[in-house]
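Input.
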Amino acid sequence: MRPRTTRGLAAVALAAALGATTPSAASADARPGGPLTERVSTASDGAQLERASQHAAISDDGRYVAFSTKTSLSPEFPGCEQQTYVCLAVKDRRTGRLTRIANGGGFDWGPPVLSGDGRYVGYTEGTKGPSARVDDLTTGESTPVASAARIQDITPDGRYVLYTSGDDRFVTDRYVYVRDMATGTAERIEGDATTTRFGAASLSADGRFVAYQKRGSGPEGGDVFVEDRATGTTARADGGLGDSDAEFVRISGDGRRVLFAAEGRTYAYDVRGGTARQVADAPARSASRDARYAVLPQEGTGGGRLVLLDVRTGRRTALAPGETRAGAVTVTSGGRAAVFTSTASDLVPGDTNGTSDVFVRRVR
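Output.
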């Protein structure tokens, strides 16, 4: 990403006040020799949070995890006990440090998104209406992206941000936009002020390709489209496969493959070849940024347990027992670790808070 102008000493002071550290390269698992399952929704001193944590996302290298929480007892989360407030934080798994995102509360609009190294966190905030923002955890700079908008994706270098927006604070899915954070300009991909509505959306690593779900756009229901921003061409990915799932779309970093769910199954669409093939008989809920690994419900569990699917080989690996939920990009590069939310109390020792927590599972 092209360097952005910082705010001098004020930005450095803010970063210090937030407890931010400069992200650096790390292995796919921040603790290679650590436990297979690690609870990350804890305070900096390791104490458990007494209220629910959820909406988790993990950086490509596995070092940083962003999540929201309603906790009130920890001094790192003052004010989160208020009815309309939900706090957002980023955990450094290497140091244990917790950095709170300090923009007013109300982070329950959906999962945050992280850049590849965890330096940039994109999120939707607001207690009366959603707005999209991106924070630089190195400088402490917080940049508003759009009002009446929900964050969808961010490129690994943090330069391009994908979001949906609307005409007022109560309608946030009438348009699909890509914003260049270096220039401050935004490009409308599709949308209008009529009845068009959009679901999940995803960006390639260079920001060139956009995959998105358009609700009720055709005779089969929702459809998935892929736009090449360089050429302006748009292709439909799910032709003949039925109604697509508005909650999940993931394009690979190189823009060559799109994973999406339709009619309870998961498909991989070849952007160059224009063909789709079924890769799972269950609907994926999230995937790695390279679209090779997908998180989906385990068969016979009623959707309450998750497995990690290697799209290339078909291999499936159980993530954890008990009720689990996935968020946005919840799998690291190479499929080595995944982050999820669970209410299970037996995944790690000392889990006695009786509510949902965020966990990282080291798969290999």
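The helical segments are 8-18.
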